[in-house]
Amino acid sequence: MKIFNTPILLFVLSLSLLVSTNSTAQSSTSPPNNFNGWYYYVAQIDISPKWGIHFDGQIRVHNIIERFSQSTARAALLYRFTPSTYLAAGYAIIPTQIYPEGYLVPEQRIYQEFKIKSKKLVKDIQLCHRIRSEQRFFGLKKQLDEGEEFVHDKWLFKDRFRYKLGAGAPIKKFNPDLGNKLCAGGSAEIFLSGYNLNNKGSLLDQYRTEVFMDYAFNKVVSLNLAYINELKFNGNDIKMINHNFKLTLKTKLQFYKKSK
After folding, report:
1. What is the pTM of this model?
2. Distance CA 239, CA 244 (A)
3. Which class does domain 2-254 fall in?
4. pLDDT of residue 151
């Protein structure tokens, strides 16, 4: 598909990284650096050759194991056009702990996702493109009388668009019949927000780069270890740099019989 011309996409992502670096140089103060642990469980359930269900749950912890930061429960229905291309729509509940105040900000999120894997390149390297559109609703707190707790009585809408370019390749296949193998790869992802553009004058919301190792025990269960460098923006400046260490357990189940 010509829309996914790889040289053009690499140029776009390189340009966004240049913008990120330039923003850091222009910032009057150095942004804070945080170290976080992201712990995921991802389940993919195929109910037919075309239809599937995606579920993931995660917990994010500040300073790896120090204190709770955020959790996610997400579910989606997906439709496959081909084995390497799908369209999905889902819903997520994402509460975030605000410090030092100590209250939770609830978020409800609706999202749509399109994902396509390219043909394998040199030495089995495969590119993956993911486009995601998000409609996010944040609970706003209301101050009650003295001694009473915060409640959430209104919702703030924020939109966001994400594009992710990933690349991965197998390092070693231990037992091809069982699907037992070790893979490695990386990705770059850009986040754009119309809400930020209207309120802060900057379309760029976040920029992430990731490197990972993935070990498949068999065709059903795999374990993924990754490092994600995450830049969060406030206007034209970087307001925060997060160093995220992610551990993900994945399962893939098939509830139909393949036709012979």
Report:
1. 0.85
2. 16
3. mainly beta
4. 64
88-142 tens-digit pLDDT: 999 999 999 987 767 788 999 999 999 999 877 777 888 999 999 999 999 887 6
The 3 state secondary structure assigned to the chain is CHHHCHHHHHHHHHHHHHHHHHHHHHCCCCCCEEEEEEEEEEEEEECCCCEEEEEEEEEEEECCCCEEEEEEEEEEEEEEEECCEEEEEEEEECCEEECCCCEEECEEEEEEEEEEECCCCHHHCEEEEEEEEEEEEEEEEECCCCCCCCEEEEEEEEEEEEEEEEEEEEEEEEECCCCEEEEEEEEEEEEECHHHHHHHCCCEEEEEEEEEEEEECCCCEEEEEEEEEEEEEECCEEEEEEEEEEEEEEEEEECCCCCC
Task: Give the start-to-end residue ranges of the domains of the chain.
Answer: 2-254
pLDDT digits (tens, 9 = 90+) for 19-64: 555 544 445 568 889 999 999 999 999 999 999 999 999 999 998 8
The per-residue b/e assignment along 227-253, b for 16 or more CB within 10 angstroms, e otherwise, is: ebebbbbeeeebeebbebebebebebe
CA-to-CA distance for 93 and 194, rounded, in angstroms? 21
Side-chain half-sphere exposure of 74, counting CA atoms within 13 A: 26
3-17, 126-140, 198-212: the lowest-pLDDT one: 3-17
Both tokens assigned to 112: 């749509």
